[in-house]
Design brief:
The protein is 26% helix and 23% strand. The protein is an alpha/beta fold. Strands 4, 5, 6, 7, 8, 9, 10, 11 and 12 form a 9-stranded mixed beta sheet that branches. The protein has a 3-stranded mixed beta sheet with strand order 1-3-2. Strand 4 (33-39), helix 1 (46-53) and strand 5 (59-65) form a beta-alpha-beta unit. The chain starts with a strand and ends with a helix.
Length: 300
């Protein structure tokens, strides 16, 4: 019995072919990847984000969540411009939960096979590498998930001069504007498709209920996350989140309170490997959050 591996083009996209190499008895399965996005008020970055994701995704299902800016209009423009590779699927006018992604999944999962995968997309996150090798390995391992290490970029004290002088222009790629990062969070970002299973959010709001959380692929990915980008965006983001139980860490209304000291961060150079030491970068924050969670629970 042959082994199964995925193949894809130089641009990261697949073409739907399945072939057999008779000499090696190797089944070559082309794995498709669909992106699943929910965005709210991200019109300053959504075009950069989707154009980047299209390097690797066969199709992107885009959902708008109560945006008051041009996010939905830009989704529609991208749908027209990409001839359907971007689908501006729906506007959602309900309270947010991760289970809203089921709206997109259930509408399109039958276009894919059990060999194919979904990638959760946020409009401010950019996968840092081609996911197809990780997908192929995860499939060989019988995994249901691929974990992403979140490369969190912040506005730092070394960015302030450009911001305050007006040199920090949105016309410049976000990868060149925000350079200081720490890898201090991780979570599942890719998950396996099943055309026979309808995602029931009453059972699991995070992922389709047929998947097993312990089945994780051994190869992980990095995702560059630009939660804070400039003054206008930060001010809007803070106003939406301050006082919300969903974002207890957002306590200050002044954007300068969220500027970080660059000396504690790594400097990003496009094309260079991400620097990541879990013992230094990840676990201190993880333990701090766990202590805070327990303290909050004990106070209730």
């Amino acid at each position: 019995m042959g082994t199964t591996r995925a193949v894809h083009g130089a641009d990261g996209r697949t073409d739907g072919r399945v072939s057999r190499n008779r000499k090696t008895r190797e089944d070559v399965v082309v794995q498709k990847l669909y992106g699943l996005m929910i965005a709210r008020d991200e019109d300053d970055i959504i075009e950069q984000n989707i154009e980047h994701a299209l390097k690797y995704c066969d199709k992107i299902i885009a959902l708008d969540h109560m945006s008051s800016d041009e996010t939905w209009a830009k989704m529609q423009q991208l749908e027209s411009r990409t001839k359907g590779r971007v689908v501006a699927h729906r506007r959602l006018e309900v309270p947010f939960s991760d289970g809203l992604r089921a709206v997109g999944y259930n509408a399109f999962h039958r276009e894919l096979s059990k060999d194919d995968w979904w990638m959760r997309l946020d409009a401010d996150e950019f996968v840092n590498e081609d996911p197809h090798d990780a997908m192929a390995r995860a499939s060989q391992e019988g995994a249901d998930f691929i974990r992403g290490n979140m490369v969190n970029f912040d506005v730092t004290d070394r960015d302030l001069a450009d911001i305050e002088s007006g040199r920090d222009a949105r016309s410049t790629s976000i990868e060149l504007r925000r350079r200081y990062y720490r890898v201090n969070w991780r979570e599942y970002r890719l998950f396996r498709n099943d055309p026979d299973v309808v995602w029931d959010v009453a059972v699991d709001r995070n992922f389709p209920q047929n998947l097993f959380y312990k089945r994780r692929g051994s190869k992980e990915l990095f995702f560059r996350h630009y939660g804070d980008r400039d003054v206008a965006q930060m001010t809007k983001r803070i106003a939406k989140r301050i006082g919300s139980a969903e974002f207890p860490h957002v306590q200050e209304a002044e954007w300068r309170k969220y500027v970080k000291p660059a000396r504690r961060y790594h400097y990003h150079t496009p094309g260079r490997p991400i620097r990541y030491n879990p013992l230094i970068d990840f676990w201190p924050r993880r333990l701090w959050l766990e202590v805070k969670r327990r303290a909050t629970g004990a106070a209730k």
